[in-house]
Records
---
Amino acid sequence: MGNKRVDHIAVAVADLEKALQFYTEQLGVELLEIETVEEQGVKVAKLNVGNTHIELLEPLSEDSPVGRFIAKKGEGLHHICLGVEDIESGIENLKGCGVRLIDETPKIGAGGAKIAFVHPKSTGGVLLELSQPSGDHH
Ligand code: ZN
């Protein structure tokens, strides 16, 4: 899968405005953009924390994946994302190793990146996202 880096750490929040008040005003972290990703059922606020990002995820509805997560577990760490260079070959490799994947083919995430989630049962209990950025930026 080539070199990997933490692309972002995602936190599920019930109230994005309130969460942003903490992160931007109180903590002083820079807000880069807010994007609605209909396919994932979330509004995403991307925060600049140096060489990686924190993403705050607010569900668009209660029956979206993040909505169900908050209903079940409350707000909190939702997933860690590793940036990869070739997500298709990465998925094939993991499948070949018997790793449990949530997405066996890539979906389109924030910023047009190709993404796939690996099941927490295979990762030590943390939802893991793989992301291959869209070609036009790093
Ligand atoms: Zn993510």
---
Amino acid sequence: MSEREPIGVIGVGWVGLVTAAGFAELGHEVYARDILSEKIDALRRGEVPIHEPGLEELVAKNRDRLHFTTDMADVISNAQLLFCCVDTPPTYSGDADLSSVERVVEELGDSTDHALVMKSTVPVGTGRAIQRRRADVGYVACPEFLKEGAAVQDFMKPDRVVVGAGPESADFADRVENLYAQLGAPIVRTDVASAEMIKLASNAFLATKISFINEIANVSEELGADVEEVARGMGLDERIGPHFLRAGIGYGGSCFPKDVSALKQLAGNSGYHFQLLSSVIEVNELQKRRTIGKLQKHLGSLVDREIALLGLAFKPHTDDIREATALVLAHRLMGEGAAVRIYDPVALNNAGDMLAGATTCKSAEEALEGADAAVLVTEWPEFRELDWAGTVKDLMRNPLVVDGRNFLDDEALRAAGFTYEGIGRPAASAVEA
Ligand code: UGA
């Protein structure tokens, strides 16, 4: 059991709240601060502002050890290890916007016996730059690898924990290591720049894997192979592994698009053109738009066609719609003159005016009523449970399904009289031929 020590968490977003609740669960007192007073008020009432499986329960269970505040002084006076979990969104140029991190550094004030433990994803070199200005404060790079939708589980059972520090912050880094020791994961101890690079390179590699399998899917469609079989056969090679080989309509979310661009931009700024990542990004953009071609193949012009989009969140089990493929698709479809009807079990409230012009629906059935085609965008389990052969078939004007995640039972749909288009799966006629 690690020694218990009070912990500060600065920025109570996805990463911050999971980190705070996770350390509280491990027995530490946690002082978590956010500048948004409504968010802090809600958390004090026990309300969790994001949809993340298991998080509400974890926060409720550890209420006594979780101290939510808007006041940085509360955190600084109670904890020495300050986990920085603020956002680093992309700027128009593709660089990371570090203004929230900068504000945290400023807010350290004259405290000297503290360490900033950087969980936010930052460009390589950020830690060194901060240390140059604040040599009186410790600095530990401790990138976060949790996935939305599985964040609590990822906190408790990480594949690895990366702790990067220079010799001057070695004691603080040891303390961070101790905090994670009881989770039993391998700890990778590095210098600061390498830890920063591990984070960006990991996300860029995973995104590369996705764009790679998506291109294999596109070629498979032409050549009559089935990408699901191909991925299964490839994934059994231990050097390749089975994960992140699911072909689909492109990756989204708050991390992959941002981090791939950030690494490409960072390389460019240092004088190196990262050719591969340019292609990864381009393939992903094209992949999102291929659905339009699939619909046109069967429907011809999309003018005045009713298209049902099933799913808005960038992936299931989250209400996050940042860089969600559904948003791009909805606007491309409306641009082609189609009427878009969209349903998501949890994410629609976050859309605001981003879905202006589309009809938001209260159920999948409502979206599917009178539709000329259904596009499955997010693989929410409830979409598989729909009565496709009965209710859905009766509701739709035309039984065409484009399954953007190869999630539905293609054979059952075809047997029920649907025209089914997956990603990288041969059309029925090609199989029969
Ligand atoms: C990703 C990484 O997986 C985390 O390790 C990392 O900590 C996080 O970014 C981050 O940097 O904060 P996340 O964006 O939550 O996590 O979601 P993923 O499950 O990785 O999915 C990202 C996107 O890739 C989704 O749109 C998903 O549908 C897509 N995807 C994923 C595929 O298209 N195919 C796959 O095989 C896997």
---
Amino acid sequence: MRILVIEDEPKIAQAVKKGLELKGYAVDMVHDSDSGLSYAMDPDYDLIVLDRMLPGKMDGVELCGELRKNNISTPVIMLTARGTIGDRVEGLNSGADDYLVKPFSFDELIARVRALLRRPPVTVGSIVKVDDLSLNPQNYEVKRGSKEVKLSKKEFSLLEYLMHHEGQVITKEMIASHIWDEEADILPNTIEVYIGYLRNKIDRPFPKKKTLIHTLRGFGYKLST
Ligand code: CA
């Protein structure tokens, strides 16, 4: 999952970026509302953390309103130093999905990020399931049947993305833009290599079970039963 952080205060921006990266998210960061808006218009972001008070032509509330006007529905968590009822209502009215008052605890931010990224169709509680493969984003536990599968952070992010899009064809470009941030150097075969790692952990050790990761030559990949 790829997250855009729009926050002008360098310390907070860095801390949020680092913390989210430690949880396995790909994070891009900008520091004013002008570049914030142009980045946020990119539909490849899965979530935006948006500071309310920003240098630039707009503040966070206006930026969010502008996004919604342009039919960008990426979930937005708004950060603000003020927490009055009026501010809260204004933030939510502009199309923000959630609201966090500074100073906030990082655990709370993560909990809200997770809640917004959770998508209903294939989830049981917060656990995502495809056939007998299950993935729990709370504790990073992945299981095929009852057998636990150990994944690296990148492998986990890739699998989570594929499972959220069960049955859909996912191109390498989609994977690159949702799992890696813009500064990452991705070689042409990086994604194949990671798909290979996943196969070796999810499919190959279970020859009697259904193969879940499929390659569609020239198109991309699909996770399905
Ligand atoms: Ca600010």
---
Amino acid sequence: MKKYAVIVAAGSGIRMGSVLPKQFLLIHNKPILWYTLHTFLKSYKDINIILVLPAEYYDTGLAVCDEMNAAYPIRAVVGGDTRFHSVQKGLSLIDEESIVFIHDAVRCLLSPSLIHHCFEETQKFGSAIPCVDARDSIRLIHATGHKSIKRSEIKLVQTPQTFQSAILLPAYQTNYQEEFTDDASVVEAAGYEVHLVDGESNNIKITTPLDLAIAEELLDPPQFSV
Ligand code: C5P
């Protein structure tokens, strides 16, 4: 089965408080995006990568691609105003039956075994959505106050969210809704059930300076030598 990875890297990263979008910040002298691409390329030699980039940093993104040793050329496209629109732009380049990973570029700590597991589960179930348990207590805010809800009923959702193209491509032929913060929500809105799999506690979305410090500690440069 053909494999595509749509790596969404078109966000501006204002929560990090830096001018440079977080996917281009350096850890051990390599951009965060470099680690993410490296892990996908290491997972499958025959993977087709589509990289979604901000218009203002398009050349910066292409320069990162040039450093990778990809068997198939990494294709790049300019993203949109929201993650949903960026994914839509990436998917517009896929026109064959395949298994498609959609991954946040800023989750550079995922492992090849998570990618393999998502692929295998998607072959069996049509999709694979990595999730981890919530560790904090949870409160739901409503119009008149807030209430405690059962932590055991909560899952925190990660990427790569993985789908058979026959499900994903038609589901994304829809208009944007505010609830579409990930791909599972888009596919569910199209009437499909999604299949949850175990994610990884290390697979954090680098969002704040603290996350960056954690990633710096966890990323082991020798393991990433090409
Ligand atoms: O904004 P959020 O943290 O949900 O972003 C998750 C991923 O989606 C990031 O890798 C970011 O670069 C990407 N993104 C995008 N286009 C946008 C917004 C976010 O590709 N317009």
